[in-house]
Design goal:
The complex is a heterodimer of chains A (about 190) and B (about 220). Chain A is of the alpha/beta class. In chain A, about 30% of the residues lie in helices and about 25% in strands. Chain B has one domain. Chain B is mainly alpha-helical. Chain B is built from ten helices and no strands. The chains are: A alpha/beta (about 190), B mainly alpha (about 220).
Chain lengths: ~190, ~220
Amino acid sequence: MNSQAPSLLTGAGLGMIRGERVLFREVCVVVHAGDALLLRGANGAGKTTLLRVLAGLTRPEAGRVTRAAAHHWVGHREGLKPQETPREHLKLWTQAWGSGAETDPVLTRMGLTRPADVAGRYLSAGQRRRTALARLLLEDRPVWLLDEPYTALDADGRKLVDDLIAAHRAMGGAVIAAIHGEAGFAANGDLTL
Amino acid sequence: MSAAPILAAFRQSLVEAWARGAGALLPLGFLGGAAVLVPLGIGSDGEMLKAVGPGIIWVALALASLVTLERIFQSDAEDGTLDLWLQTGAPVSAIAAAKTLAHWLSAGLPLALFSPLLALMFQAEANTALLVNAGLYAIGSLAFFFWGGVGAALSATVRRGGLLISLIALPLYVPTAIFGALAMSGGPGSAGAPLFLAASTLFACAVAPYAMAAALRLAAD
């Protein structure tokens, strides 16, 4: 971890209250280029909430988040419409982000060639997850925020996620992921909530 | 800032509106059904039907807009699309406005264009006034959709939020209903009423997107 380099994303003194319970407090998160940070904790410990705070979706009760670089968000809900095919999904977000990426190579890379034109409601959970993860490849963004990226994936899929993360870190990207169980990549930091 | 996310949101909503509930057919069926019930309820006196016709169509239009709006933001909140739209960097108000406009185009505008046919059922004479009225219905329904959109955004995370939408949106429909009905009454003050109708629609288009944006941020929070 190079502490001289400017951080890509910093969360300082983050605190969150849900209902009448303190989810977490005084949490500090810093990621630099090449970092992978794992968020750990039991169900309901606040991993997803912390990720949402870092993404700017949820306003923290205390502390502040500084985002120096663009980020990708893959939450536990895929963002795929029932009538939308993986190909249409990727086309839509290529257009929305103005990234101009080719979708066919991305579909191939994610193993979605066969179900590329199948509507979301007919896809398996793993195929939907692969479609959501495929968004990561549409545009080069330094920070990836991943909520349970392995969910519903088979062994191949998990390997694919590990490869994507490794390639992303090698290119100077950073990953913050909430993961239950074993991560298939060597993280250089973890945070238990 | 680029307009790309806003255009993409518009397109997605247009596709979604057609994929779900057959686009305009469901609200059209609702409007037709509601309008057919009225003569059955109040009798077939031609003069009376002629007098109440335009007003009945306004009411049916308002209700039909509410029927279609329930899922406009709710489905986005459920499937995680809302999170993605909130992170595009484009103003959320513009995205909300684009989605509402798409829904109006796929449901509101067809309703307005359908209205002359209903007016004929209410014994209106077939003349150009019917087309003018269709234009007024189109303008008014735009306000219905934008105010209804605020209700839909506020109830995005509420199960069976349809009733809540009605509760929030119906009071906001009042100016449109008043000026709309006045414009078609031909009575005193009806000359300026279309302008007031248009003004209240413009007001809705200007204010509602910000209210929707605030509500959607709250829904994701």
